[in-house]
Amino acid sequence: MGNENTQVESPKAGAITTTLQSIACGGTGGEMTAVDSKDGKIVRIRPMRIDANYTAEELADSLWTLEVDGKTFAPPMKTAPNYFALAYKNRVYSKNRVRYPLKRVDWEPGGDPAKINAANRGRSKFVRISWDEALDIMESEIRRIIDTYGPYSVFTIGEDGHRESKDLHAGGGMHSTFMSKLGGYTRETRTPDSVEGWYWGAKHVWGSGSNKGLGMIAPPQTGYNSWNVIKDITEYSELICFDAGDWELTQNYGSQFWSRLLKFWEELGKEFVIVDPFCNYTAVCHPEMKWIPILPNTDVAFDYGVIYVWLTEGLYDKEYVATHTVHFDKLEDYVLGREDGIPKTPEWAAERCGVPEWTIKAYARNVAKKVTSHAHFSSGSVKTPYSHEPGRTGAYKLALQGLGKPGVQQLHLNASSMAKANIARSTSAPYSSINQCRMFYPNAQSIPRTMVAEALTKGHAKWWGSPAIVYVETSEQFQEFNYPADPKAALAMQQAMAAAMGKEAPTEEPRINKVHMLWSEKPCNMNCWDGGFNYQDAIRTNEVEFFVTNHQWLENDSLFADLVLPVTTCVEDNDSMGSGMIVFQPHSGLTPPACDRVGESYSDFEIACKLADRFGIRDQIDLGMTQDEWIRYGFDQSRLGEEISWETFQEKGYYFPKLAPDWKELSPGMRLFYEDPEANPLDTPTGKIEFWSQALADNFPDDKERTPMARWIIGGPAEEGWTHDESLWGERCKDYPLLVTANPARFRVHVQGDDIKWFREIETVKVKGADGYYYEPVWMNAVDAKARGLANGDIAKLYNERGIVLCGVRISERITPGSVMVNKGSRVDPIAPHIDRGGAINLISPTNQVSKHCKGFAVTGYLLEVEKLEQAEYDEWKEKYPEAFARDYDPAIGINYNSWVIE
Ligand SMILES: Nc1nc2c(c(=O)[nH]1)N[C@H]1C(S)=C(S)[C@@H](COP(=O)(O)OP(=O)(O)OC[C@H]3O[C@@H](n4cnc5c(=O)[nH]c(N)nc54)[C@H](O)[C@@H]3O)O[C@H]1N2
Ligand SMILES: Nc1nc2c(c(=O)[nH]1)N[C@H]1C(S)=C(S)[C@@H](COP(=O)(O)OP(=O)(O)OC[C@H]3O[C@@H](n4cnc5c(=O)[nH]c(N)nc54)[C@H](O)[C@@H]3O)O[C@H]1N2
Ligand SMILES: [Mo]
Questions:
Q1: Does the record bear Metal-binding in its keywords (predicted)?
Q2: CB atoms within 10 A of CB 725
Q3: Lowest model confidence (mean pLDDT) among 274-278, 472-476, 607-611, 666-670
Q4: Which end of the chain is more exposed for a tag (fewer CB within 10 A), N or C?
């Protein structure tokens, strides 16, 4: 079967052809990149000159400059793509690419329990099948499931997330769009992963926040946008505190903007402090940084120690507190010990967070003395059990120092764009009309991503908070939801949605049922979300009659699938691009295919079209337009036409929107609120910053975990009503005494890129075990390693009651004693149920959510123990699970396709 859907031919034989691409793996676009190809294959990927097709005069109104103290910061004329983009050839031609449709050998369609062999998911191998056979299976299974149970038994997994940068061809919702045309589906909803603690905590302090919903502060008066925060910090801040957040590592996946900005700030003589269990890349790459090691998930103690110093030494902004905040007295009562008899002194804090008392005092006095901003991209400390507490104390610290004053800002994910452009930043928005179901729309029946395992294994689940993340009021967190959905409530939801979208509303209750088919368009739940081993168990039941994934690489969830449909990478598609949030300049461009497609792959959009042909609904999916027409339509729907004609855009291939003429004058960050809180209120119930929340007190009066004000919460046994016992002061820590710091990896974007061989050559990326296998490193302090008889290069078992993950020991002073650091996202390599060789750390993360009423995840700052894997046990496993140890393995890329496919 040819790629008849691609109307642009791949480069001609012989000559080198260059195409423009956007490669970021972050869901949104990255820096513009030039890709050179020959004979339909990529030969190299490199930066490109932004003035390649424009004169300096033509660019003049689009490029910003920042001038402070006689020093200048401006975008480079040569783009600075991230290292992932530059190495992407490894990814496109990885030995791990899915080249053909694959079917698990011992699964047959039809729903016969004897032919599902659910227990073998993640164990048995795959065989190649034709596209016709794959589409036959898809069609017959979807028809059977709908006939037997109704359409809500099809569960579409993986809306949005950090897939590759694509517009028309973007996955994560095409399956939902397709199913919606067949009468419905159960939607897997994303939880506020990047921002858990801000979402569940800080929203109750300073309102819904950026994008109206993410919980990081932004002024309602500017449509919840935070412009000119970088400019304000550059001009006024003397000190920048990175309270959990590794900007040198995490802010560079779109471009190298943040590396360069941090360098510029260094040149301006700014001071930096990083409070972090790990001496992170921001700390090691920038000599001016001061690192304060802290135990994971103890930031609340640290922050209260700091606040105690401020309150007792009068080092806070009293006037601001009086005019901009409410319930300061309650905070005072708690901090000074009037409420519970325990003053939260630096000494009290030191015993809990491991930071010496005098360091806490010095930090407190330094922050109060200097003009200080706090950088929180999403922040490691807000992905922990009870993360609403550090989310709230983080907000309190800013409030006490006059948030919004010149140079006193929260630098966060939606405050990291340099200058406002005149028109919409990208052409991607119009594609929401094709991929209608992507992100943020509620559905008649849904399951939050954090509760899928529970819903599948128990058959029911209950939570609070709607499936939407942005554009929602804080009060939606008080709403209760259930799986299976109540058909009456589901009908009401459908009618409300129809009304909001101006569509005809259904009148009959939907035929709600439990889910029996899983279809993932972003298959990495077990490795990105919480309780991964439980998720594997949930897939391994006959209740799941069919599990299909669309995927480019044979890894993670796809290893557990019954059918894998091969997907193109972003450089193979005929597409367009819009820039994401962390690039030098907003831009739009056309990205024709850079190379021939690998194997028989199609984009998620094309797969939906093929299926739609089988069901006679093609015109409802592509709306009768070719891909070229869609790309033109995207241009027409964007506001690009106000500044450039379609013909010129096509000829030039890319465009930088002009800057808003007044971009420098836009009120920076929270300045409006600072200047006049009455005229520019927050969207909290009182319009002010609330140290204590009446809304929480009214709605969840018995919640001892998220009380109306942030408290030092350590949890405890489940019998006593606690969601977690993941602290150093409970019972579980007797068996599992180490707190893990499970961060994003420098050389992966989440799970993406673990097979890039150029990175795997870097010494710190993997640890070679005595058996020749390259293990994911566990970074341990010498103190903790010595106590366990561990040496560099040892194979170690990381475990708790949820299972065992193998890692390679890397002893380093970069991690504080009491914690070990393992990067999330190393590929799953199952040995047996609840034993994994790949080092996929999220497999053993908590299965419970943030806290009782907060359905988000807790994926770092939890307990485990580390122990050497002795040779005798290794040999025993090898004998017991021979197939796991016999998988074809390439040290340059790790586990690969051949190990799972019978050729
Ligand atoms: N321990 C720990 N866990 C964490 C975090 C942490 O800091 N620590 N961070 C959390 C955060 S902030 C986030 S945002 C999440 C990220 O979690 P996700 O957004 O789920 O992460 P990705 O790994 O980027 O997921 C993308 C998946 O889609 C696949 N994919 C890419 N492009 C396409 C495509 O075009 N089509 C299809 N069908 N598939 C595609 C990729 O191969 C990959 O499997 O992880 C969270 N998990
Ligand atoms: N290379 C790469 N870049 C990425 C990603 C990736 O996977 N790879 N993911 C992207 C995404 S979607 C997001 S949301 C951002 C996240 O960007 P960040 O907010 O910067 O990342 P986090 O992992 O949330 O936080 C990182 C820092 O928090 C520290 N930390 C962990 N636990 C604690 C704690 O309990 N207390 C304190 N004080 N510090 C702690 C970690 O050691 C780490 O240095 O990164 C983005 N950029
Ligand atoms: Mo994220």
A1: yes
A2: 21
A3: 472-476
A4: C
pLDDT attached to residue 426: 54
What residues sit around ligand 3, an ion, with C-beta below 5 angstroms?
194
Assign 374 a pLDDT band (cuts: 50, 70, 90). Answer: very high
Q: Is the pLDDT of residue 439 over 80?
A: no
Mean pLDDT on 539-560: 97
Q: Which CATH superfamily is domain 196-218+228-416+667-691 in?
A: Dimethylsulfoxide Reductase, domain 2 (3.40.228.10)
- Ligand 1: residue of 167, 528, 864 to mutate (most ligand atoms within 8 A of CB) is 528
**pLDDT at position 165:** 86
Place of tokens 């003589």: 269
Candidate from 88, 276, 524, 726 with most ligand 1 atoms within 8 A of CB, to mutate: 524
Locate the ligand 1 atom nearest the alpha carbon of residue 742 and give its number: 1
Using alpha carbons, select from 522, 621, 615, 525 the residue that is nearest to residue 567: 522
Please name the fold of domain 102-185+436-655: Rossmann fold (3.40.50)
1, pLDDT greater than 60: no
Q: Residue 335 C-alpha to ligand 2 middle, in angstroms? A: 29
Atom of ligand 1 nearest to the CA of 525: 20
Q: Using the CB atoms, write b or e for 302-329: b if 16+ within 10 Å.
A: bbbbbbbbbbeeebbbeebbeebbbbbe
Looking at residue 4, its pLDDT comes to: 39
Q: Mean pLDDT in the chain? A: 93
CA 750 – ligand 1 centroid, Å: 5
Query: Does the beta carbon of 567 sit less than 6 angstroms from any atom of ligand 1?
Result: yes
Ligand 2: residue of 82, 88, 214, 276 to mutate (most ligand atoms within 8 A of CB) is: 276
Q: Which residues pair with 67 in a beta bridge?
A: 72
**Which tokens is 479 given?**
């709403």
d(CA 814, CA 820): 10
Q: What is the pLDDT of residue 9?
A: 47
Question: Which residue has a Cα nearest atom 4 of ligand 1?
Answer: 528
The CATH topology of domain 727-902 is Barwin-like endoglucanases (2.40.40)
At residue 503, the pLDDT reads 78
Ligand located closest to 528 CA: 1
pLDDT score of 495: 85
Closest CA to 194 of 394, 379, 393, 396: 379
Mean pLDDT on 726-746: 97
Distance CA 199, CA 474 (A): 9
Give me the pLDDT at residue 191, please. 87
What pLDDT does 413 receive? 86
Q: What is the pLDDT, as a whole number, of residue 392?
A: 97
Ligand 1 atom nearest to CA at 380: 7
pLDDT of residue 435: 61
Q: What is the Cα–Cα distance from 872 to 566, expressed in whole angstroms?
A: 40
120-145 pLDDT per residue, tens = 999 999 999 999 999 999 999 999 99
What CA–CA distance (Å, rounded) separates 109 from 273?
Answer: 57
What is the structure's pLDDT at 252? 86
Answer whether 760 contacts ligand 1 (Cβ < 6 A). no
Q: Which pLDDT score is estimated for 725?
A: 98
Report field, pTM of the whole predicted structure over 0.90: yes
Tell whether ligand 1 has an atom less than 6 A from the beta carbon of residue 412: no
**Ligand 2 proximal residues by C-beta, below 6 Å:** 162, 194, 243-246, 249-250, 253, 275-278, 280, 294, 296-297, 299, 377-381, 383-384, 741, 743-746, 748-750, 860-861
Strands (E), 295-353: 325-326
The CA distances from residue 799 to 366, 525, 738, 824, 833, in Å, are 40, 20, 10, 15, 13
Check: CB of residue 556 under 8 Å from CB of residue 527: yes
Q: Is 192 helix (H, G, I), strand (E, B) or coil?
A: coil
Domain range annotation of the chain: 102-185+436-655, 196-218+228-416+667-691, 727-902
* 8 A C-beta contact, residue 155 and residue 142: no
